[in-house]
Amino acid sequence: MTLNKFNLPDVGEGLTEAEIVAWKVKPGDTVAINDVLCEIETAKSLVELPSPFAGTVTELLVPEGVTIDVGTAIISVSDAVSGDPTPADVPAPATPVQPLYGMLPTHDAGTSGGAPAGGPLVGSGPKADAVKRRPRKAAPAAAVSRNSPEIEPVQPHTLAEVTAQWQETAPGQAAEAVDTRPTLGGTITGLVNRVLAKPPVRKIARDLGIDLADVVATGSRGEVTREDLVSYQAQRDAELDKADGFWGKAGKPQDQRIEKIPVKGVRKATARAMVESAFAAPHVSIFVDVDASRTMEFVKRLKASRDFEGIKVSPLLILAKAVIWAAARNPSVNATWVDNADGTDTAEIHVKHYMNLGIAAATPRGLMVPNIKDAQDLSLKELAVALNNLATTARAGKTQPAEMQGGTLTVTNIGALGIDTGTPIINPGEVAIVAFGTIKQKPWVLDGEVIPRWITTLGGSFDHRVVDGDLSARFMADVAAILEEPALLLD
User: Fold this and answer.
1) Considering all CA atoms of the chain, what is the largest pairwise distance in Å, rounded to the nearest integer?
2) Cβ burial, residue 405 (10 Å; 0-12/13-18/19+)
3) Strand ranges inside 352-423, DSSP E
4) What is the pLDDT of residue 13?
5) For position 416, what pLDDT does the model report?
6) Which residues, 6+ apart, have CB-to-CB distance to 205 below 8 Å?
7) 123 vs 282, higher pLDDT
8) Domain ranges in the chain?
9) The Cα angle at residue 418 between residues 415 and 420, in degrees rounded to 5
10) 265, 304, 425, 482: which could form a disulfide with 41 (CB 3.0–4.6 Å)?
11) Is 464 a catalytic residue?
12) Does residue 453 register a pLDDT over 80?
């Protein structure tokens, strides 16, 4: 028997530490190669770690919520097979376990590791299958106790919703708590609780999370009635209203009403990067109001197009395409300022002949700026799909470190929050960022007449070491021109 220890790997470029967010296995669980062991939070994102070993988990070496250095052992897995563990070394179970929803396909039968043909994937990557756990022995139906706990899942409902079914129930039902429901092992029939209540009343209590033993019964036979539940729920709501809200309890000392939040992970990395950018690159910002009415019309036509069926389309798509187009006409905005490594005052400007378009995304874990690689090569439809995938992944906190590296120019859509404009901080390693404000109808002078038009404000921040006032103005004017007339993209 071999005891293997898995050390925290570098899942990004130059990662030095990470926090164990959640373990997906526990001691005693059986795992196969590439089964997800845990989730870690790096300075970039939330990453799932797959297992490089097949065997049985013996010990979790690091608790959840602890930040550790790369190379630290985090879990030990024992393997009954000597030598290096491989999928072929893991023996198949003597008696195949019948899956709950039927047998696996024939080509999967007999495999225990389930590792892909290309070998184990260690570090980051697509979500692996759920962790394989030991099969549980099903108890026969006859062994079910009459007083077994209820197993029906609780669904959240309001009191009005869950009592609707009660009102449809014929009066005069037995007050005893008789429960007859099918289960995986057969049928449970018998008294569920000694508290008297009709079945619909029990369902109301179950859905509201109320323990009937806590309710004062006023029924003629000592049973809990619907009115008793209403009274109990009202009392519970009143108690919750008296609980501490955001501002805390009145009269409590102020030093006891301070919530201390550790700065770590994505938030820590973002703070460090923004300070570095703000004080290392001399920012200059300019703004321009844009009549985006034709962009709004164009987006409406795209939404109705069969080619874009099932794809979310928004004005951000047109702005992204406009930024790519304008950067090709003003290449120095798609660049990096590089100081000389020898400490002298010499430096270089690296102009990128490719566009890795960054999209600033607010996520539950903090600000992330994933980028779309080689965005200049994508068609309008391909760019729309890429934006959708980027947003979905970022909101789920599943953006991988590689997706946030190598950006060349960034767009931040502050208009999604109803903000008109702002002065964004340049993403480190870049020299330009565009803030896209909300689009709203405003009075606009067109051909001497004041008419309502869809207006937005663009805000751009630039590294003045690379982009001077003239270049930044020309770039922003080109972006605005596309929003005013998207047909220019066809030129």
Assistant:
1) 93
2) middle
3) 357-363, 366-368, 371-372, 409-412
4) 58
5) 85
6) 197, 211, 212, 215, 224, 229
7) 282
8) 2-108, 141-242, 265-490
9) 65
10) 265
11) yes
12) yes
Rounded Cα distance, 10 and 13, in Å: 7
Among 107, 350, 353, 464, which one carries the catalytic annotation?
A: 464
Which pLDDT value is given to residue 198? 87
Residues 21-28, mean pLDDT to the nearest whole number: 90
Highest mean pLDDT out of 109-113, 277-281, 465-469 = 465-469
Burial of 50 (0-12, 13-18, 19+ CB in 10 A): buried
Each residue's pLDDT tens digit, 108-138? 333 333 333 333 333 333 333 443 444 444 4
- Quick count: other Cβ atoms within 10 Å of Cβ 448? 5
* Dihedral angle over CA of 468, 469, 473, 479, nearest 10: 30
Quote the pLDDT of residue 313.
95
Q: CA–CA separation, 109 vs 130, rounded Å? A: 17
The terminus-to-terminus CA distance of the chain in angstroms comes to: 68
Nearest-angstrom CA–CA distance, 353 and 328: 9
User: Looking at residue 376, what is its pLDDT?
Assistant: 95
Instruction: Copy the structure tokens of residue 6.
Output: 């898995």
Instruction: Give 353's Cβ-side CA count (13 Å radius).
Output: 0
Q: For residue 131, count CB atoms less than 10 angstroms from its CB and return exposed for 0-12, middle for 13-18, buried for 19 or more.
A: middle
DSSP string, 151-214: -SPP----HHHHHHHHHHSPTT---S-EEEEEETTEEEEEES-SS-B-HHHHHHHHHHT--GGG
Across all residues in the chain, what is the average pLDDT?
A: 76
Is 103 a residue whose pLDDT tops 50?
Answer: no
* CATH number of this structure's domain 2-108: 2.40.50.100
Q: In what order do the strands lie in the sheet with 30-31?
A: 2-7, 73-79, 55-60, 30-31
Residue 295 has pLDDT above 90, yes or no: yes
Tokens of 317: 């798509």
Instruction: Decide: helix, strand or coil at residue 287.
Output: strand
Rg from Cα positions in the chain: 30
Beta bridge partners of residue 18, listed in sequence order: 68
Token pair in block for residue 461 = 């921040």
Please report, to the nearest 10 degrees, the dihedral formed by the alpha carbons of residues 423, 429, 430, 436 taken in order.
-40
* Cα(201)–Cα(239) distance, integer angstroms: 23
Phi, psi for 337 (deg, rounded to 5): -90, 125
Residue 490 pLDDT level (bands cut at 50, 70, 90): confident
According to CATH, the superfamily of the domain at 265-490 is Chloramphenicol acetyltransferase-like domain (3.30.559.10)
Q: Which of 459, 431, 429, 457 is nearest to 444 (CA)?
A: 457
Q: What does the block give as tokens for 420?
A: 């008109």
| The amino acid at 461 | S
Which structure tokens are listed for 355?
Answer: 């566009």
Counting Cα atoms < 13 Å in the Cβ hemisphere of 296 gives: 12
